[in-house]
Amino acid sequence: HNKRENTTLLNNFLKEVDISAISDTKGQKSDKKEVVTPVLKPDLKMMDAVRIQKLIIPRFEDIKKEFKNFFVVHEQQDVVGGDFYWYSRKGNQTLLAIVDCTGHSVEGAMTSMICNSLLNQASSDFNGDNVSELLKNFYTQLLKYNKTTSETTDYNYGIGAEVGLFSFNHDKGIVSFCTTGISAVIKRENGIEHLKAKKVISYENIQQSITQTSFPMNDVVGIYGFTDGLADQFDADDKKKLGTRGVLKMIEDEENFDAEYYLSEINKWKGDNIQYDDITLVGIAM
C-alpha cells in the first residue's frame, strides 16, 4: 500500500476514537485539578488488520465492468468486521456474494478471512450447473473446519456465516440467487419484489436453510442484496428498527443509483445514534 492509502486508513481509524479531555494552559497556576490530555497512539496492529482484511475485498472496477452499473455500501461497525462481499468470474457466469460472518470487530474479521478462503475453494470446484451446489460445498467445508477445530483444540466454539450468492449466466440471460439468511430485492419497471430468505436456526443444519430463485435478466432494472445489519439499525431515538419495509422504501424511492444516496438515507435514519451492526448493501443495474 502507498503512503496516501496508509494515511487514509489511519485517518479513518482516528475517526473511530472519541477523545474529550481538559487541559490547563501551560505555565498558569490553577486551583483546579489538572486533567492531562492523553496522547493518542494509533494501534498499528489494528491498522495492519484493516489492511489485511482489505485484501479479500474485490476491486470495485472488476465488478462494475460486469454490469451496466454497480455500487456497494460497506460500513463496518468497527474498523474491521464480519461483513464482506466476494466476486468471481467462471466462464460465462459472474458470481457475486454478500457474506455476514458471526461476530463483529476483530472476531468477525478473522471469521471473514476463513470464510473467504472457503468460498474460493468451493468456487474452484464449481462447474456452473447449479449455484446451490457451490453454497452447499461452502457449508460442507465450513462444518469440516468447525469439527476439526473442536477436535484439535480446547475450544468448542464454531464459526458461521450467512451468504447471499448471485449467479449471472450471461449466455442464457438468467440470474440465480441462492441464500442462507441474506435478503435480496429485484426492481422491475412495474415494481419491486422482495426475495425472502429462510431464517438460519442452526449452522450445523444450515444447508436446510438454503433457498434458490432464478429469473430472466431481460425485465430487470436493478438487483439489491443486503445484510441484516441494515434492517436492524435503530433510528436516531433508539426506539425503532429500519426494518425490511424501510429498506424496501429506500429502494422504491431511489433518487440516484449510487452509494452516496443510500449512505445519506442510512445516516438520516440513525442520526447520531450508534451503528449496531456491520452493514453491507450492493446494487446491480442490469
Task: List the SSEs and their pairings.
Layout: H1 3-15, H2 44-54, H3 60-64, E1 69-75, E2 83-90, E3 93-101, H4 105-124, H5 131-152, E4 161-169, E5 174-180, E6 183-188, E7 191-195, E8 211-216, E9 220-226, H6 228-231, H7 243-252, H8 259-270, E10 279-285
Question: Could you characterize the architecture of this molecule?
Answer:
This protein has helices spanning 3-15, 44-54, 60-64, 105-124, 131-152, 228-231, 243-252, 259-270, and strands at residues 69-75, 83-90, 93-101, 161-169, 174-180, 183-188, 191-195, 211-216, 220-226, 279-285. The chain is of the alpha+beta class. It has a single domain, classed as Phosphatase 2c, domain 1. The strands form two sheets. It has a five-stranded antiparallel beta sheet. α4 packs across α5. Mean pLDDT is 85; it is low at 13-30.
β-strand number: 10
Spatial separation of the terminal alpha carbons: 33 Å
Largest sheet: 5 strands, antiparallel
Name the overall outline: globular
Mean pLDDT: 85
- Give the quaternary arrangement of the chains: single chain
Q: Based on helices, strands and strand pairing, what is the structural class?
A: alpha+beta
- As a percent range, the share of helical residues equals 25-40%
Superfamily at the CATH H level?
PPM-type phosphatase domain
Widest sheet, order of strands: 1-10-9-6-7
Output the helix-strand order: HHHEEEHHEEEEEEHHHE
Tell me the count of domains. Answer: 1
Low-confidence stretches: 13-30
CATH class: Alpha Beta
The count of helical stretches stands at: 8
Radius of gyration: 21 Å
Strand content: 15-25%
**CATH level-two architecture:** 4-Layer Sandwich
CATH-defined topology: Phosphatase 2c, domain 1
